[in-house]
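ingest -> validate -> predict -> emit
validate: passed (alphabet ok, no gaps, 385 aa)
predict: started
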Amino acid sequence: MNVRAVFSIIGFLAIYGALAGYIGWNGWLFLSQVTGWESAILYSCIIALLALGYIAGRLAQSAPLDWLTTPLKFIGSYWLGLLQYCILLFPIADIAGLLLKWGGAGADIYITAVGGVVLLLLIILLALGSRNAWSPVIRTYQIRIPKTAGNRRKLKIAMASDLHLGTVIGNNHLRKLLRKVEEINPDIILLPGDILDDDLAPFLKKGMKHVIGQLKAPLGVYAVTGNHEYYGGKVPEFIAEMNSIGIRVLMDETVMIGDEFAVVGRKDKAVGSQNGGRLSIKELVEPLDRSLPVIMLDHQPSDLAAAADNGVDLSLSGHTHRGQLAPNHLITRRMFELDWGYLRKGGLHAIVSSGFGFWGPPLRIGSRSEVLRIDVEFDDATAKA
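emit:
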């Protein structure tokens, strides 16, 4: 590890520690006022456990204490969500409290009442966010592609991105995916990346491989890598495991579904220059007969212009989570031309999902865990003309 990386880690921990201390201090003001609790030692230990839970849980995965991984990461994950909203709410509450104090109000108003309002807001956010994260919905899109697809006139796609299977998201949530897909009853199932949260070990240890392997469709199940598969550093092993259960991971590859349409799968851009990097969309589609429909899986929706320029008919992506926790969607909206939903760009239909799972906090505010049903109608406009 070089000196720059060391200083970056120290800087991050210093800022993170200061934020945790600020949140802990505000919490202690309220708690000591309401309960009369005088010793802050136990309270400080609890705050430290919450603040370090996610990091400690991640480290425990590769240590003899791996049995602590799930509780530590679960607690730490919720803390990360609280951290964001505490940073947004506490400064406002502190200013309001100071103004009330200067105005002559007693501690029961500027600490107890103000703190109570903030606590109520945090409870509401936790309850709503948990429901949005753990209760997926089916969202439906209907599109028309003006091409013939052999004798096929319609295609029903079930799509789920960003499953993030690992320590926090396990078989219970995964079975919800199975039920939603069964409800859709698709012709084909497409999984555009971030199937893993990062590490392959929990996926195998918890037997999630055998649960996700129950996904079946007449035309098959296809996936691509996302950035999180690369974080774990075991992409070849992941691909082998997925192939063994009948889910084909397309690595800059194309599959022809009969003589009807092509499914193109891109490596995620996180591959960088590893193993030759990844092909451009132009290189991927160049050998194809583009009189047939072309459906592309690309985890990150960063190349929509290239997809439109090169004759891709339907692009399916995830990655953005729609910010996951509002107001983060204001950031993803600026980062991507389409950070969620549907966009028509020339002849391209682009769809970006907010994802089935989540990263970090088991919370969604301003977004929802979702499985997409995409009803495609093929219609040869030239034949009609």
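The longest strand covers residues 137-145.
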